[in-house]
Write a sequence for this structure.
């Protein structure tokens, strides 16, 4: 953990406060879960985009399997867990977050950061199909109930032979209906009556966190960028997700914002001299979390944005916030509209669209412009077809628009899918190409 | 009058034709004829046929296509059916389609509609979103509404209304087809020496690219002819095959399995046999189809139904087929299949059901390994069990 959150540059100001916050948010999560269980709280496994604010209004303690697996990977401890799952029967071609988690189940729930309590409920969310399988696997091991919160995906079309607005209203009613059933399930599980005011307060906190988060991620527009969107951004995001909808979460992001403002004032960033600004598409390679960004840092390149930044706010970035006057409906809307552009009524919200939405290529070009980026790095993940399935196609389309693109392949948790020499060669070649392009551009401007 | 071997051979030529000649000819023979393609696993084909259009299941290009564009547009770890479907579309081989409908049934398939929309000029693309949990109380009303949206979409393609009565008539035709397919599988379970898994596969698949009213007589004729064969039972183990609910293995792969075993049941092309019973013909036809999907369908790795573990369905299938073993064989890179393989394997072990695990890929060319593995497995059961 310490290694993961260290600032990449000696020029950046100390960030000890933020480090401690992130540590307590993520590292102590399992110890907190046990304390909660001892207090009689129920344990719910939910994925990072699950209905966190709602579950928290029942004092349900949340465990995030993805963050748990990412922590294993970042601590370089995932492989033995993955191999245990493979010995059990799982294939190497499936999601390594899942196999790392199965390895945990097969290890008496002993995680490198502490023992993990078993779930009383699994909250399955339909962001990705692997969540369905993961939920079913968790149920097989722990014999716990699953609640699926489903929100339909809609495809952008040139012409709609059906009423898109009516469809949206009906879909929203479908989601609200499920939220009400989830409320009933939680009431039954916890014996607590649903408190709308408490839920509303959690949404308010999530709104405040969302607004702060939007400010934070926009600060990479500064030159130099005050932080690296991969190296530091993903740590911020892990803490923000874990603390979503809490007072601690607001304080946590305020500290990060203060730290970043200080860096901006000092004019320092992740590298001594920022030469290139890049977008990072998809999740990081957690087993080599520092190594890959540092290969770019050596050439003076900094990551200024990743569409996964939409995650902690669940699509509330770019104006959309929970409407506290109609909490359930608004909650349903945020589930439906969130960052993977499922709702064709709106353009992609600075995210990566893999289905529905449309306009993805323009979206990426807008991101390039907004963050003053020089190129895009697509990280195709062995484990994650949801994040990676369209990257090669994006490369075809976006590169036709003159954008420099590098496509890397590795994995989120399995270190066997990373080749350091090959990755370094590809990054070096890409950075040389970017430098040459920049030189040629400056020469042509000079001639003009 | 054709023999059964001639019928099967003719069907095989039809399903292996990546130019879709028979479909193109069907389209040309009548004015205003439309073809609607859909990605596996399941689509309510009754809605397409009720509009006078031809439903066409797009199962990729199989082993008969070289993937060039597909590889450029998809990264290494995508399953083959997605890549070969993209290859067909990008190469213009699906240019006769009037609409393509995809389903977000897995993380790879989620990308197909947008990818085709970005890369195939003029191809109308949409998606059908099935309810996340078919066990939820909200699932049937939701799906009924979704089918109504799909009806509007199809009406725009065929250019006229698709009334309830036309859907009921279409349900009647497809109920007939489903009954005949159930008979085919019954015959195979009873007398696998009379109808092989390859033959049953070919006859099932040909129905995914022809109108129900032409397909039902073909099936009837096959069912009449199979029992007239002078084939004798030989000493082979009886197995159920599981794993090909979406991407389909090459026919040579199935044949390699059959050299050592009677494959007495399977999940090949399960979308064509997805609904277990007749769909109700009275009342609201969209509701009947939604009800059938949620409450009277087979288990499938791409469906989430917390009411019943999928392995219940597999074990019931094995028992109904009097199978001695199960071959668990998902497609390479098929996450739902690979994950469920473990679920199935553990349940099979708990039920003392011997199982063999192997992956397949639609583009595989070498079947010696398949043959050797299956023979060894079968011999172990025959001689040492």
């Amino acid at each position: 953990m310490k290694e993961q959150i260290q600032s990449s540059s000696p020029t950046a100001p100390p960030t000890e406060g933020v480090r401690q916050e992130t540590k307590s948010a993520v590292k102590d999560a399992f110890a907190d879960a046990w304390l909660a269980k001892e207090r009689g709280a129920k344990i719910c496994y939910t994925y990072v985009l699950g209905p966190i604010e709602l579950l928290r209004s029942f004092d349900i303690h949340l465990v995030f399997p993805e963050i748990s697996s990412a922590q294993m990977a970042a601590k370089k401890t995932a492989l033995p867990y993955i191999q245990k799952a493979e010995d059990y029967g799982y294939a190497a071609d499936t999601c390594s977050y899942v196999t790392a988690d199965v390895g945990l189940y097969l290890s008496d729930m002993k995680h490198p950061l502490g023992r993990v309590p078993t779930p009383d409920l699994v909250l399955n969310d339909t962001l990705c199909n692997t969540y369905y399988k993961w939920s079913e696997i968790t149920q097989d091991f722990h014999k716990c109930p699953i609640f699926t919160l489903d929100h339909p995906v809609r495809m952008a079309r040139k012409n709609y032979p059906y009423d898109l607005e009516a469809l949206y209203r009906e879909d929203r009613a479908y989601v609200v209906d499920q939220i009400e059933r989830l409320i009933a399930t939680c009431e039954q599980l916890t014996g607590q009556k649903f408190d709308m005011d408490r839920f509303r307060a959690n949404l308010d906190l999530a709104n405040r966190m969302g607004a702060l988060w939007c400010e934070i991620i926009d600060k990479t527009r500064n030159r130099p960028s005050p932080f690296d969107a991969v190296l530091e951004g993903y740590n911020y995001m892990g803490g923000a997700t874990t603390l979503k909808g809490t007072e601690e979460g607001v304080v946590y992001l305020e500290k990060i914002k203060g730290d970043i403002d200080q860096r901006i004032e000092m004019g320092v960033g992740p590298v001594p001299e920022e030469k290139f600004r890049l977008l990072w598409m998809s999740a990081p390679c957690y087993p080599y979390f520092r190594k890959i960004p540092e290969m770019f840092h050596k050439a003076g390149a900094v990551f200024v944005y990743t569409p996964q930044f939409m995650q902690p706010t669940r699509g509330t970035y770019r104006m959309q916030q929970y409407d506290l006057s109609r909490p359930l409906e608004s909650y349903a809307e945020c589930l439906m509209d969130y960052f993977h552009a499922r709702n064709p009524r709106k353009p992609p919200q600075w995210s990566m669209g893999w289905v529905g939405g449309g306009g993805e290529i323009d979206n990426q070009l807008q991101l390039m412009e907004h963050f003053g980026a020089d190129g895009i790095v697509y990280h195709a993940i062995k484990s994650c077809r949801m994040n990676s399935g369209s990257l090669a196609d994006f490369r075809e389309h976006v590169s036709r628009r003159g954008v420099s693109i590098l496509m890397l392949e590795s994995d989120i948790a399995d270190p066997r899918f990373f080749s350091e020499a090959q990755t370094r060669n590809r990054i070096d070649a890409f950075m040389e190409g970017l430098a040459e392009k920049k030189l040629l551009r400056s020469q042509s401007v000079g001639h003009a | 009058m054709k023999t059964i071997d001639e019928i099967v051979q003719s069907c095989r030529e039809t399903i292996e034709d990546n130019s879709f000649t028979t479909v193109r000819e069907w389209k040309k023979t009548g004015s205003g004829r439309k073809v609607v393609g859909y990605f596996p696993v399941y689509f309510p084909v009754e809605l397409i046929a009720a509009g006078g259009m031809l439903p066409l299941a797009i199962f990729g290009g199989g082993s008969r296509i070289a993937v060039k564009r597909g590889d450029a547009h998809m990264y290494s770890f995508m399953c083959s059916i997605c890549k070969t479907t993209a290859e067909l579309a990008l190469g213009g081989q699906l240019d006769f389609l009037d609409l393509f409908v995809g389903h977000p049934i897995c993380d790879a398939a989620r990308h197909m509609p947008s990818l085709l929309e970005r890369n195939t000029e003029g191809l109308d693309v949409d998606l059908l979103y099935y309810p996340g949990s078919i066990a939820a109380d909200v699932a049937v009303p939701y799906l009924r509404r979704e089918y109504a949206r799909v009806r509007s979409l199809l009406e725009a393609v065929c250019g006229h209304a698709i009334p309830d009565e036309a859907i009921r008539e279409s349900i009647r035709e497809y109920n007939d087809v489903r009954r005949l397919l159930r008979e085919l599988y019954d015959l195979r379970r009873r007398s696998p020496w009379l109808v092989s898994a390859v033959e049953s596969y070919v006859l099932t698949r040909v129905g995914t690219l022809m109108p129900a009213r032409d397909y039902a007589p073909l099936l009837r004729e096959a069912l009449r002819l199979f029992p007239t064969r002078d084939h004798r039972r030989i000493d082979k183990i009886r197995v159920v095959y599981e794993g090909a609910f979406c991407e389909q293995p090459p026919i040579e792969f199935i044949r390699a399995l059959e050299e050592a075993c009677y494959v007495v049941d399977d999940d090949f092309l399960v979308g064509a046999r997805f609904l277990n019973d007749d769909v109700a013909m009275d009342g609201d036809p969209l509701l009947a189809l939604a009800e059938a999907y949620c409450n009277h369908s087979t288990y499938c790795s791409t469906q989430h139904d917390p009411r019943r573990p999928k392995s219940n369905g597999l074990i019931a299938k094995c028992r109904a087929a009097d199978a001695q073993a199960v071959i668990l064989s998902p497609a390479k890179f098929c996450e739902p299949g690979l994950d469920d393989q473990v679920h199935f394997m553990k349940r099979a072990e708990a039920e003392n059901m011997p199982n063999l695990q192997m992956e397949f890929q639609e583009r595989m060319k070498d079947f010696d390994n398949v043959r050797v593995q299956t023979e060894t497995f079968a011999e172990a059961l025959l001689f040492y069990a």
Observations:
- Strands of chain A lie at 43-46, 61-63, 110-111, 114-115, 121-125, 146-149, 276-281, 301-305, 375-381, 404-410.
- The mean pLDDT of chain A is 89.
- Residues 2-447 of chain A form one domain.
- The radius of gyration of chain A is 22 Å.
